[in-house]
UniProtKB/TrEMBL annotation:
Pfam family, one: Methyltransf_23
Organism: Pseudodesulfovibrio nedwellii
Protein known as: Class I SAM-dependent methyltransferase
PANTHER family in the cross-refs: METHYLTRANSFERASE TYPE 11, TRANS-ACONITATE 2-METHYLTRANSFERASE-RELATED
CDD domains the record matches: AdoMet_MTases (cd02440)
């Protein structure tokens, strides 16, 4: 096998920690979401799952990225593009009035609703058919946008995008070319340091949806892109995720009690794990009311990283 590089920091100090067979991924998408992804894996028997020893990023190799049709299928679920997200309100506090804001991978442009008094531009490569604000959403990717030679922005936001990309390091560099020195760079991803880091049999955590998993350490390493990390913030467990968390909480308890019934790893299609997961779903009904109480909620699905683009001494902007 050829030498592997981390798609974020380009380090060769990576370790393989799992192997997932694409037939199992196809089966999971069918069972959980009734979405057929067989076409994406026609020439691929398995994916290797790596962890970078330098930045901590987890990634799948090869990266098999979903196309517009794949995301159109997911958009049929009313939970996929939520019109309101915790990170929208939280991140709007870091963007001053009058700022010019670029939102990359904006979906329908819902973030604009949290930015009164700012100049908003959204980019959505997968062509949402009914954007919230058609005049503010451009249906193009970052490379097409850069070809228009846009003016620099005061803030660039990337919500739930990096984990979908084959080369997030390259993408970050292109996104930052749109940002003024001293401007704010705000990103969010699912947090590998939250409960979802232990989830088994989650199809959306794998290609052709997610190419990588992001622990806090990966964001700390992003200072290599001439960024200053201002804040890492974990959202509290959101209402929509309480039943999911409750089920996985019970699943983890049962795994500890009956480790012999689980093989571990990202995918477990064994009869023993299926029985364990079904029992966890029953138990979850009892603990869901507990975690519905804000006082008992752990950190939630998403981590938000707030950066400032450093001003280089001697530059025109400095």
């Amino acid at each position: 096998m050829s030498e592997q590089n981390c798609p974020l920091c380009n380090s060769t100090h990576v370790e393989r920690i799992d192997r997932v067979f694409t037939d199992d991924i196809v089966a999971l998408y069918d069972q959980v979401l009734t979405v057929d992804v067989k076409e994406y894996f026609s020439d691929t028997e398995f994916l290797e799952y790596y962890r970078c020893k330098e930045c901590g990023l987890f990634s799948f190799i090869p990266s098999i990225v979903g196309d517009s049709l794949f995301y159109q299928r997911l958009n049929m679920f009313n939970w996929y593009y939520l019109p309101e997200k915790y990170e929208f309100k939280y991140c709007s506090q870091h963007i001053p009035l009058g700022a010019r804001v670029l939102d990359i991978g904006c979906g329908a442009g819902a973030f604009k609703g949290s930015l009164p008094g700012r100049d908003y531009v959204g980019l959505e490569p997968h062509g949402e058919s009914d954007p919230v604000s058609k005049e503010s959403v451009l249906h193009m990717d970052i490379d097409q946008f850069l070809a228009t030679q846009p003016e620099l922005f005061d803030a660039v936001c990337v919500f739930q995008v990096l984990e979908h990309l084959k080369s997030p390091g390259d993408f970050i560099q292109r996104a930052l070319s749109c940002l003024k020195p001293g401007g704010g760079f705000v990103v969010s991803t699912p947090s590998q340091d939250s409960f979802i880091g232990n989830v088994t049999n989650s199809p959306l955590a794998m290609p052709p949806h997610h190419m990588s998993h992001w622990p806090d350490s990966a964001f700390r390493q992003m200072t290599r892109f001439n960024l200053e990390l201002e804040e890492l913030h974990h959202e509290p467990l959101q209402d929509i995720h309480v039943p999911w968390f409750s089920s996985k909480f019970c699943e983890e308890q049962l795994k500890e009690q009956h480790p012999e019934g689980c093989k571990g790893g990202l995918i477990d299609m064994s009869p023993g794990f299926k029985a364990l997961a079904e029992e966890a779903e029953k138990m979850a009904k009892q603990v869901t009311p507990i975690f519905s109480n804000p006082a008992w909620r752990p950190v939630g699905h998403t981590v938000i990283a707030v950066f400032t683009k450093k001003i280089v001494a001697g530059s025109v902007e400095a």
